[in-house]
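Data availability excerpt. The first of two example chains:
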Amino acid sequence: MNLKHIISQTLLLAVTVALSACDDWTEIRPLDTGSQRPDAATEAMYEAAVREFRASDHQLVLGRFDNSVKVPSLRPQHIDALPDSIDMVILARPDSLCERELDEMREMREAYATKYLCEVAYSYVEALWNDSQAAEEPEENAGEEPDGETSAADGENGDGEGGPTADEPQTDGFPAFCAEYVDYALGLCDKWGYDGVVVWFDGPSLDFVGEAERARLEARREAFLGPVTRWREGHAAKLLLLGGSLDLLDDRTLTDGCDYLLADGRGASAMGSAAETFFRLENAGFAADRILLAVSAPDALGAGGEFGLQSALTATAEWLLEPSRTGRKGGMLIDNIQNDYFDTGLIFRNTRKAIDILNPSPNN
């Protein structure tokens, strides 16, 4: 059932009840600012209508929200400021949630059945690893002589034997680091009561690499995806969304068993480029109704978020209505959704327009 149709019927009923009491209007009373809000019964009917829509078959709209501000000074820094028609919200800072955040999430869950997800990305874990290695380099180079040469004593271990040489293979410490971090990130789902997790695999391709390099990259992939496979086995009732370069994966165990796939068009500057990420997954054998296209609202400085002269959000929503060879397209994810808040006429203007395009009123 259409969201606007459900809500319009709810509000029509509320207006009818209000008009039946028009005799009360003849008495002049002081302005009660509390009456500006819907009464409890009307609000309860509206919330029930949204929950009914949420459970219906429709194209999904997800938002990725930057919750890094723990003491907000602006309304868009609140989780509950998001439009109530958003199906799921991914929190960019999923750990160390404050009491206010937990309260807002609980209220939105109870009122609108909004779902909340934590996330982990391969590129983020890899960046953490690279930073940790860069921080250790000064200590490793502390034994060098002023001219850059290492002393003979530093070239030997405690037994007087030579240490590893340039010709000997270096052990890759990333897999152990990665597996530990992914276990921690997935554990946040239980720790904070999330409804599921989003896993972005944006690692490198194995094509056109040598045998040794291929083995190294495969070990890194397994370190990232292995914990996800084990988590899924123990959390069948939770949501699992996979995003990124999923067409590069030969093993379809995770992709076939997840709930939705995310085509990552967040870096695209044109609709064609964003659509290409969707088609890559569809051409890899995934049905269109399982694929959500991720695009981005403008960044904090107002840059991006447009495809030509049109908002990337509304352009994507219009594109999602076009037929696909494998069926109806699943929906969209809006990154940086908090940055769409400010507008002179309507908060979250482009987000609301995108929702209305995907789920239009039957009267339009």
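And the second chain:
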Amino acid sequence: MTNSITPLDSAKHAHLKVTPTTYEHVAEQHLLPISIYEFAYAAIDSPVVFVKNSETGEYQSVIMLGLKPGQNLKQKDGKWLGLYIPNVLKNYPLGLILSAEQQDKVWVGIREESAHVSTDEGNALFEGGEETAFLRLRKESIIKNFEQEQMSKAIIAFLAQKELFSPQSLTVDIKGEKRGINGIYFIDEAKLNQLSSDEFLDIKQRGLLAPIYSHLNSLHQINRLAKEEIELSV
């Protein structure tokens, strides 16, 4: 998803159409950002972990799609093989543009160079200078996802304040190859259980226990990824 994005314009983009999404553009991405509101869905078949920005110290939740950089086991030849498609992919090639000056100012944009942008086939974005129903639905979805991402960011910062994250180094066996996985973080269940009664109750009342346990349960899916890599290599 490296194509530059341009704000949508009813005049400039009057004749553009968007074709159904395929997933070649993330074929080499082994991690994708997801919000805390996606944990229960993503955990069905993928690990949900956290990474830390070395410059800001902020944590971000991500879905693991592969066991090494450049590997996405959930897509093949543009088709999605996983049971859950992350929100960040659902509206491609449309997306959000944030204002550098005004944090509350956003625009919906389009990646004009994407293979999914056409003038001949697909869903029209504008008709008679007005937004189509297709575009309106996509914009609503994009804005909703953005709002969830912002709330997720605040929640993760709250969990970080409670010092619940622990760095992890894992080793998986791929047909006899011992592969190390570093740079990821889990919520430490022992630290969670060591919180005071008031702190634990606060987390519960905020509705955070369900996504926390979805994250913890999803860690078993690391073995699934190893199995999927072996199967795809046959």
